[in-house]
Specification:
alpha+beta; four-stranded antiparallel β-sheet; 2 helices
Length: about 80
């Protein structure tokens, strides 16, 4: 599974005609993200995903991605 498929599987859009990838920001995580996100430890290959009210970090694991950090509304 690639990162786009993982995001689509985890974040369900309430509107069938809106692709969730058009709403969230997703990019490779950067070393300075660990300064902004308490408790997160950067690892190469991590992905930063945010919709403005919540943020999470996905880490590649075998052929999938695991959520290793969540903050904001996504932490609940």
């Amino acid at each position: 599974m690639n990162i786009n498929q993982r995001i689509r599987a985890d974040i369900v859009s309430p509107f069938e005609d809106i692709d969730v990838l058009g709403v969230v920001v997703h990019r490779l995580a950067r070393i300075h993200d660990q300064i902004r996100l308490p408790g997160y430890l950067y690892k190469r290959g991590d992905y930063f995903v945010s919709d403005g009210s919540g943020t999470c970090i996905y880490r590649p694991e075998d052929d999938d991605f695991d959520r290793v950090w969540a903050g904001g509304e996504w932490a609940n």
